[in-house]
């Protein structure tokens, strides 16, 4: 799977809360704003939740949550957020997974992955190049998260 990982000097719960807070995604990617449907702002993401990430006012990226696991229902499993990218330009999937690395829960490994391409009509092109570009962004986010 195309993904990047980094050990973060914080608990898995704290790290996941930071990385999965889509409404504050601008802390990691400054030119991106998130818009959630009316009545959903500030509520936890759950399967079926939708939002729009708009980068620099020129790259709309519609997404829907396909899996959200914050640790409450299944303790011990990695915390995870899976999103399906619906276009209009980027299509595919992205995911965040966070797992504690020690019983003391003072560090964790955060993983961010992408499998995306560019939508052109009914075709998807440039999967590898698009995924590599998104992974570079994810690497920067995880580096910044390790300093937060």
Structure description:
The chain has helices at 12-19, 127-145, and strands at residues 3-8, 32-35, 50-55, 59-69, 79-88, 90-100, 108-120, 123-125. The protein contains two helices and eight strands. It is an alpha+beta fold and 148 residues long. It has a single domain (3-145), classed as START domain (Alpha-D-Glucose-1,6-Bisphosphate, Chain A, domain 4, 2-Layer Sandwich). It is globular, with a radius of gyration of 15 Å. 24% of the residues are buried. The protein starts with a strand and ends with a helix. The longest helix is centred in the last third of the chain and has 19 residues, at 127-145. This is Polyketide cyclase/dehydrase/lipid transport protein. It comes from Serinibacter salmoneus.
Quick description:
With 148 residues, the chain is of the alpha+beta class. It is 18% helix and 43% strand.
Key structural traits:
single chain, 148 residues, Alpha-D-Glucose-1,6-Bisphosphate, Chain A, domain 4, eight-stranded antiparallel β-sheet, Polyketide cyclase/dehydrase/lipid transport protein, START-like_dom_sf
Write the layout of secondary structure elements.
Layout lengths: L2 E6 L3 H8 L12 E4 L14 E6 L3 E11 L9 E10 L1 E11 L7 E13 L2 E3 L1 H19 L3
Antiparallel strand pairs: 1-7, 2-3, 3-4, 4-5, 5-6, 6-7, 7-8
Protein name: Polyketide cyclase/dehydrase/lipid transport protein
InterPro entries: START-like_dom_sf
